[in-house]
Amino acid sequence: MPLLPTALLLTTLLAPPQARFTWPLPPPHQVVRAFEAPATPFGPGHRGADLAAPAGTPVLATADATVVFAGAVAARTLVSLDHRNGLRTTYEPITPAVTAGHPVRRGEVIGHLQPGHCPTPCLHWGARRANAYLNPLHLVTTARVRLLPLTTPPRGG
Question: Which residues contact 78 (CB under 8 A, 6 or more apart)?
Fold first, then answer.
């Protein structure tokens, strides 16, 4: 098997894969409160990430999905999307621009941000698979890059 030049190999290994998910808000993406996994199913935590944005900002579908809910829950309105592989994302508080049962495409406007969730307007963006809450920021950011040697260094001294 022929060896690739080091620069080409590193470029190939470190090139980001085609993004399946995008941010739910136009840039900038200031995280005002990070995801905090609960220790138990009903324990304390923060089951999403809060992203700062002005009220009225369009909220975008982060990937192709089907709208499973768009409406009020308690005192807030939200949109929930079902994606492939059992992933569900939620966006609140937003004024929905979509209705349940309809497909949406990545980047499509699903609503507009309302004030009221944070001291300054922000979007609470959540993700879960089955009963497990996930950090939604992992959908749009890459894992830590770890560089490993391409060959074993010589031993001895």
Answer: 69, 70, 71, 90, 91, 92, 93, 94, 96
Within 10 angstroms of residue 78's Cβ, the number of other Cβ atoms is: 21
Alpha-carbon distance 135 to 125, whole Å? 9
pLDDT in tens, 113-146: 998 777 889 999 999 998 888 899 999 886 554 5
**Buried b / exposed e across 96-111, counting CB within 10 Å, b at 16+?**
bebeeeeebeeeeebb
DSSP assignment, residue 131?
A: T
Mean pLDDT of the chain: 81
Q: What are 54's two structure tokens?
A: 């002005």
Q: What's the CATH architecture for 48-141?
A: Distorted Sandwich (2.70)
Q: What is the side-by-side strand order in the sheet with 58-60? A: 58-60, 109-113, 94-96
